[in-house]
What does this fold into?
Amino acid sequence: MPPKILIVTGDAAESLEVLYPYQRLREEGYDVHIAAPTRKKLQFVVHDFEPDFDTYTEKPGYTWPADLAFSEVDPGDYVAVVIPGGRAPEYLRNDPELRKILKSFFDADKPVAQICHGPLLTAAIDSLRGRRVTAYPALELDMQAAGATFQDAEAVVDGTLVSSRAWPDHSGWMREFLTVLRAKAPVT
It folds into this structure.
C-alpha cells in the first residue's frame, strides 16, 4: 500500500495550489486524500493579476470533492501534509480539529508543504517560531509576528517544512518537497 499524504483545505482555496500537488504527488505514487471541514464538494478559486490592480483578483475556480472531514482524519495514517493557500486558511485556522491535525504532523517531524496563505495555519499552531519560511509576500509581517524569518524565495526548506510563495513557484516547491518526502517517506 502506498504512503498516504493529506491535503487540508476548504472553500476558496486557490485551485492550482490544491490540484497541482494532488496530481503531482499521485503521479509520484503517493495515495493523496483531501480533507476539509466537512465532506462536500469544495468550491476553489483562481487568483490572478490584472493590469492596474494593486492586488490579485479572485474568480471562481474548479470544484472538487473532499474525501473526508477533519474530524475523520487520523494523522497517524499519513506520512505528510500539504497546506494550500487562497482564502481558505483565513477561516480554517479557527478550526480546532485542523489545528490538532497540523500540530501532530509537527510534533512527529513529518514533512509539511505550505504555500501562499497556507502558513497562516502553521502560524496559528505556533509552529513557525525560529524557522525560515516563505509565503505570499503580503504575509511577510504575519510570518515575522509568528516568530519566523521570512525569505522572499521560490521555495524555502527548513528541516521537514517546505514553503513557497504562490502557484507560479510550483515547480521549485514540489521539487524541494519531493526531495524531503523521498528521504522521510519514500514510495516503495
Observations:
- Residues 9 and 45 are 12 Å apart (CA to CA).
- DSSP finds six helices and eleven strands in the chain.
- The chain has one domain: 4-184.
- The two ends are 9 Å apart (CA to CA).
